[in-house]
Structure formats: structure tokens, C-alpha cells
Amino acid sequence: MTVNKVAVGTRRRRPRGAQAEGGKLRVATAGAIRHSADSRFEGGSRKNAANVTATVCSKLRKRGASLHDKARLGVGGRATILALRCRHEAEGLPFAVEDRLINVQAVPDALKQDFSITPPNTWLVGHVPWTEAEHRITACNADKGVAADLGIEQGAACLVIERRTWRNGEPITAVRITHPGRLYNLIARFTPTG
């Protein structure tokens, strides 16, 4: 990944309803994703180290949507998109790679946004209201590019979260976020219904 010196350090806010459990972050919902902090964050001396994050965006470009882009984002005709690739880091170590498409017709201000200052998701949530969202959670094995970006071996297991959002039926964004699988557990807690 080519880095254009656009890393921005931020302090990650704990999501509402989140609870700390040892080296894990548990989001209090019916289904939760747990991030298991590895040894560099355990042992007491660096308890808050996981809160220091940075986002490095590269491969930012405006282009006509390919057939694959159209299917992924749900746009047609001669749609124009903004394609981004970002690496998210904690304490200088990558924990996610984000591949995002933004529908320029729905979000023209994205072309003027400096994503080196505000990461794409943060900016979108703060500036672009949405009326519908879809999440898809899958697994994959890291290809050469993802492995290099995440600092893991090619073929390593990864957790993938894909999200699409719409505003009144118009596609806004499609994002694929890939995480090293060893950092996450999917947990669902439920009770029988009568």
C-alpha cells in the first residue's frame, strides 16, 4: 500500500453500551463482535494503548463505476464513484483494511473532503444521513494485498464486515472492512421465546 503521509492520530471513543472485559471490548447487543487484545495490550502497563488509533488512506480516486462497482454499490448507468482504501491502526499496528465506494451523485461533497483529516466513516456518519443499512459478516483468507496491509501471512483467516447504506432508496456507500481473524470472536447470546 502506498502511504501519502496522511495518518491522523485520534482517541477512539468507547461506543455507547460498551463494557470492558479484561482484554476485550464487549458491545452490549443481542449479537456482538469481541476484539481480543493481544499480549502487547495486556499486563497493566499499557491498558489504554488500544485507544490510540490512526487511519491511513491511500488509493483515493474518482472514477466511473465498473460493472463490479455497480453490483456492489447498487448503482447503474454511468455512475461516478469515489473509491478509497484505508488502513486502520492501533499503536502503529494494523487491525483493519477498509475498501470503500461512495456514490458521488448521492454524496457530491465527498469529493471535497480531505479524508486525511477525518476518516471516511466518521465523515459520512456526521454529514450524510441514511435511512437504511445492511451488514454482511463473512470470513476470507488474506490475499497478497490484504496480508501486506495487515501485516499477516498470506492465507491467514480474516473477518470481513461489509456494509451498504441508502438514503430513501438511493445508494450512499458500500464498504468492505477486513480484520485479522485472530483478533475477533463472534458471540450471540439469546433466550428462547415462548
In DSSP terms, counting alpha (H) and pi (I) runs of 4 or more, how many helices? Answer: 3
CATH homologous superfamily label: Chorismate lyase-like
The Cα radius of gyration reads 18 Å
Overall mean pLDDT: 77
The ordered H/E elements are EEEEEHEEHEHEEE
Low-confidence regions = 1-50
Major sheet strand order: 1-5-6-7-10-9-8
Here the CATH topology equals: Chorismate lyase
Total number of β-strand segments?
11
Derived from helix and strand composition plus strand pairing, the structural class reads mainly beta
What amount of the residues lies in strands?
over 45%
Number of domains: 1
- Distance N terminus to C terminus? 52 Å
Report on the biggest sheet: 7 strands, antiparallel
Task: Give the class-level CATH name.
Answer: Alpha Beta
The assigned CATH architecture is: 3-Layer(aba) Sandwich
Percent of residues in helical segments? 10-25%
Q: In a few lines, what is going on in this structure?
A:
With 194 residues, the protein is mainly β. The chain has 3 helices and 11 strands.
Structure notes:
With 194 residues, this protein is mainly beta. The protein has a single domain (8-188), classed as Chorismate lyase, CATH 3.40.1410. It is 11% helix and 46% strand. It is built from three helices and eleven strands; from the N terminus they run βββββαββαβαβββ. It has helices spanning 67-73, 120-127, 144-150; strands spanning 8-11, 18-21, 24-27, 31-36, 52-64, 80-90, 93-103, 132-141, 157-167, 170-180, 184-188. The strands form two sheets. It has a seven-stranded antiparallel beta sheet. A four-stranded antiparallel beta sheet has the order 2-3-4-11, with no helix packed on it. The chain starts with 7 loop residues before the first strand and ends in a 6-residue tail after the last strand. The model is unreliable at 1-50 (pLDDT under 50).
